[in-house]
């Protein structure tokens, strides 16, 4: 709703209410004034007819009835008076015929009053006329209004002339009424007076209404419209981004409370908005600075966010990413569909190869609290180096640093795993255990560093003779183990003998070394634990040392 409309509506409502109230007052006031004017008019006629009645009695007693005819003529000349006649009870005009004169003379017994030389009987109205009859019967003045042929209002006034004591001498006391004075007058003057009253009251009412409207409008403007306008302006400012907009506190009562509540609301709105802005800025910074690729779509599936890392990691421009769409981020729509379908469960993250890299990709649909979809998001991380590093760490953790073969921990794990496997499969498992002959003496003679280089060379020799399923390990010090899955006694013998010969043949810094080996094979040896296989090989090695070194001895019979 527009503010002007509010102001206009308020003023219109107040105006209508005032107009109704003032119209009511005007109606009753003018009606009352009209009645008063008519009553005054009637009274003034009554005064005239009363004076005529009194005059009539005096004139008649003096025997000059003809004066009344002249008097009636003069009265007809009064302003607005169109007719002034004295009627007999039969509706004819008095003072015109000789019947009454004759009756009076007869009653008096002498001819006291002269007869009219040219008597006329002039009928004025129907004697049955209602107002006329009422005047005769009640002896009280009556009146009625008519509209003449010209459309003008006429007032007809009937005032009865009672038979007074003066009248009785000539006319007797048989008749209560001697006649009726009939006055017909135009109401033009009265109407003009009424019109003036109406005009005056209209003028007064219009002025009063205008004044009241002006005062009410001013009061409404100050107390209602201006504060609401201020609140509406503040709301518009808020809508256009000025969240902290407040309204001045004006007046009192509900409007002031409304303004206070509005200011409190905007204050808390601003707090929340500032917090949101800060959080959004943080989030934007994080998203843009993230090394992970982040791509987000809206509910319709259009991409709405691509961070710089996404373009770099995917090797595509932002425009390309948008054109190809969310499912083709990794050129593998099936993968993205699978991830989105598995979102919220285990399996919404997968490590996959992308071009020459390895990436960890997570994708999920974003939903609001009511479960309605808001869009989708993908988080892609380049884990190539990470993978490589983990692989390297794993390799280092199971590799002997000096010789490059597996270390003791890996040996234990592998032996245990392989022993469990051969127990289930029934296939053979062999172990070769060996050390360098007279290595103490070698160290003492050529130095520890030279000894280390010999150990490294032995490690290389081990790697050279084993198959890819075999596990060459440094057992500790100058002792080594080779785990040979699916190798029987002959196989172990073959690998061991070849290694012995290779070591015997090699030259390390111009120096020769030899090794002594013990071999043990499961299930040829009835063993229950993996360690027992190494113990059996160790016993065989001991035997090889005993028998002169630089040889391989295969463990026979059950280990002790
Ligand atoms: N250089 C070097 N020597 C080592 C290393 N580990 C163990 N040794 C040495 O290897 C020697 C092993 O000696 P012994 O157990 O007496 O055996 P041996 O002298 O080889 O005698 P036989 O085994 O009976 O032939 C010790 O002198 C150890 O110091 C190593 O990492 N580097």
Automatic annotation (TrEMBL):
Boundaries of every HAMP domain copy: 222-274
UniProt keyword terms in alphabetical order: Membrane, Transmembrane, Transmembrane helix
Enzyme type, top EC level: transferase
Documented EC number(s): 2.7.7.65
Signal sequence annotation: none
GO MF, one example: diguanylate cyclase activity
Entries under Pfam families matching the protein: GGDEF, HAMP, PAS
Chain ranges of the PAS domain: 279-339
Gene3D superfamilies: 3.30.450.290, 3.30.70.270, 6.10.340.10, PAS domain (3.30.450.20)
Catalysed reactions, as listed in the record: 2 GTP = 3',3'-c-di-GMP + 2 diphosphate
GO cellular component: plasma membrane
Superkingdom classification of source: Bacteria
GO biological process: cell adhesion involved in single-species biofilm formation; negative regulation of bacterial-type flagellum-dependent cell motility; regulation of DNA-templated transcription; signal transduction
Transmembrane segments: 202-221
GGDEF domain segment(s): 427-557
NCBIfam families: GGDEF, sensory_box
Protein name in the entry: diguanylate cyclase
Source organism of the structure: Denitratisoma oestradiolicum
């Amino acid at each position: 709703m527009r503010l002007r409309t509010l102001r206009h509506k308020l003023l219109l409502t107040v105006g209508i209410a005032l107009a109704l109230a003032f119209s009511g007052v005007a109606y009753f006031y003018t009606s009352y004034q009209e009645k008063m004017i008519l009553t005054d008019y009637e009274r003034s006629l009554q005064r005239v007819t009363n004076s005529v009645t009194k005059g009539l009695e005096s004139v008649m007693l003096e025997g000059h009835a003809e004066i009344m005819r002249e008097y009636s003529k003069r009265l007809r000349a009064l302003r607005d008076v169109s007719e002034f006649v004295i009627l007999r009870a039969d509706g004819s005009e008095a003072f015109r015929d000789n019947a009454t004169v004759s009756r009076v003379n007869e009653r008096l017994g002498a001819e006291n009053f002269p007869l009219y030389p040219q008597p006329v009987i002039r009928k004025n109205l129907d004697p049955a006329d209602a107002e006329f009859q009422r005047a005769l019967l009640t002896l009280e003045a009556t009146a009625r209004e008519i509209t003449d042929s010209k459309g003008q209002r006429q007032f007809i006034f009937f005032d009865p002339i009672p038979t007074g004591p003066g009248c009785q001498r000539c006319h007797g006391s048989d008749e209560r009424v001697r006649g009726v004075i009939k006055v017909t007058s135009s109401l033009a003057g009265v109407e003009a007076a009424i019109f003036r009253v109406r005009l005056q009251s209209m003028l007064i009412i219009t002025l009063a209404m205008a004044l009241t409207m002006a005062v009410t409008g001013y009061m409404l403007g100050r107390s209602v419209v201006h504060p609401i306008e201020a609140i509406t302006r503040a709301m518009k400012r808020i809508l256009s981004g000025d969240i902290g907009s407040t309204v001045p506190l004006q007046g009192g009562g509900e409007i002031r409370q409304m303004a206070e509540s509005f200011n409190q609301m905007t204050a808390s709105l601003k707090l929340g908005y500032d917090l949101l802005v800060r959080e959004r800025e943080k989030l934007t910074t994080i998203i843009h600075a993230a090394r992970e690729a982040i791509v987000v779509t809206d509910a319709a599936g259009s991409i709405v966010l691509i961070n710089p890392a996404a373009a770099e990691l995917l090797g595509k421009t932002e425009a390309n990413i948008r054109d190809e769409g969310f499912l083709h981020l990794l050129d593998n729509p099936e993968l993205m569909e699978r991830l989105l379908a598995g979102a919220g469960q285990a399996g919404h993250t997968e490590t996959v190869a992308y071009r020459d890299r390895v990436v960890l990709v997570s994708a999920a649909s974003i939903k609001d609290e009511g479960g309605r979809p808001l869009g989708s998001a993908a988080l892609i991380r380049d884990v190539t180096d990470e993978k490589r590093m983990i692989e390297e760490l794993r390799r280092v953790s199971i590799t002997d640093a000096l010789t490059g073969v597996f270390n003791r921990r890996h040996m234990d794990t592998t032996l245990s795993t392989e022993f469990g496997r051969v127990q289930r499969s029934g296939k053979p498992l062999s172990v070769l255990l060996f050390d360098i002959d007279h290595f103490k003496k070698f160290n003492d003679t050529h130095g520890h560093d030279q000894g280390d280089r010999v150990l490294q060379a032995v490690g290389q020799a081990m790697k050279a003779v084993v198959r890819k399923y075999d596990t060459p390990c440094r057992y500790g010090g100058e002792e080594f183990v080779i785990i040979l899955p699916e190798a029987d006694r002959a196989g172990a013998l073959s690998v061991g003998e070849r290694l012995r010969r290779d070591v015997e043949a090699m030259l390390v810094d111009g120096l020769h070394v030899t090794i002594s080996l013990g071999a043990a094979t499961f299930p040829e040896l009835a063993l229950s634990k993996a360690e027992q296989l190494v113990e059996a090989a160790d016993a065989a090695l001991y035997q090889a040392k005993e028998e002169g070194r630089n040889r391989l001895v295969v463990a026979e019979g059950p280990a002790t």
